[in-house]
Amino acid sequence: MRNYRGRRATRLAAGATLLAAVALWDAPPPAHAARAVQVVAGDRHTCALTVTGGVKCWGDNNLGQLGDGTLRFRQAPVDVIGLTNGVAQIAAGGGHTCALTTGGSVKCWGADWDGQVGVGSPRRHRGRPHQVVGLDNGVTAISGGHWHSCAVADGGATCWGYNAYGQLGDGSETSASVPVPVAGLGEGISTVAGGGLHTCAATGAGAAKCWGHNGDGGPLGNGTLVSSTVPVDVLGLDSGVAALTAGGSFSCALMAAGTVKCWGWNQTGQIGDGTTENRPAPTDVPGISGATDIDAGNEHACALMLGGKVRCWGSNSSGELGVGNLEWILGPVSTIGLPAAVQDVSAGGAHTCAVLTDGRIVCWGSSSYGQLGNNSSVPRRTRPGLVARFGGVRTAISLRVRAGWKNGRRALQLTARVYPRTATGRVMFHTYRRWPGLLPIEGCLRRVVQSGRANCTYFPPTVGTYAFRAGYLGTTRLNGSKSAKVIVDVP
Fold it and tell me: Best exposed site among 46, 227, 410, 478 by fewest CB in 10 Å?
């Protein structure tokens, strides 16, 4: 498959031009494009499970959480080493990722300073999957907390990693680099959910229990603000729980009737009850009926509804609710612009992703580390956009630079052309600095106009060498793309 992201830099004298040769792609997505069945959003990275049992990740990779053997962040999905098939479920923590294989074993990678990879010898990071000690069979579910991991194994719950607040549930506050059993749960656990500094589990009978830090609004849901190193009952949830999720300092339960209850910290409206009052016991989320799944991010939550729509609430400072603006919303609101029905949704640190019923993936919210996977350097997206390499129409973008004068000042005219030429959407022009690197040019977020073109005028402050790149942000039908770097000498 050809790569049009343009990793090769081209150097031009002022006044010269560049128009890269590209192919035209204005057809349906190729039959061999990846198709997803699950997506998980971490703090600043995202991973997907494909229909063939493989794992692909993108976004921040400073701790190896993408599992590709490097520490380079990625703006488009890359394969996880050794996991191109045979995976049944994935889970993302704050800076690490885990996979449950079809054989019932667990492999993790990424941040490991507190033992959250589970190999028995903590170190700062691990850039490729490692087998979790003692979990080589019998595991039926996994979950990633911010700095810890958990699994359901042989009907009971086990956790490993950071434990300063008792989030491992073993009765201690000592971190563990190998799995330890959660005390007092016994068998019959159906699911486990790791949060910021707490963990929750649901029994096969539909009861909810939580443990760990409880001072921030009461995410354990027992009506107090007292932390616990062992599981405590969630008030009023002794039956009827179909699924659980744990966010930064709050928790939510999907009830068998299709309603949702949340509890804990509520500063940004993540409880969804229309207030910002903390709730140390479960509270109904108004306006939610017919929900089929629920997922909590750091300070927001999203519910998947019957019919494939998504409703979210809470913090929206990066557009993670997908409603076209950056305003916090204290109750459920429908995400706009979804190109098709959704089958899976995941809320991350400040972004959200969803798998469409045709296997494509869309993401929205913060993209400061490429966690939206759209091959773009745009810092955020307030509406859903396609993830590259998971269907959608592929695009390419070229960049031309011409020198001249405008209003008595030396000016560089940047012209981008997007292929296919029928593309709509926006282009962002960037310039390079030695530090911090690629920067958007102020005032140069341009809408694509006739024949797929967009223009930007840049006034170089001094003589010297300048470098530029243009990026097409994509739409819900078209993938994003980046031009080659263009280097210009201004005498």
Answer: 410
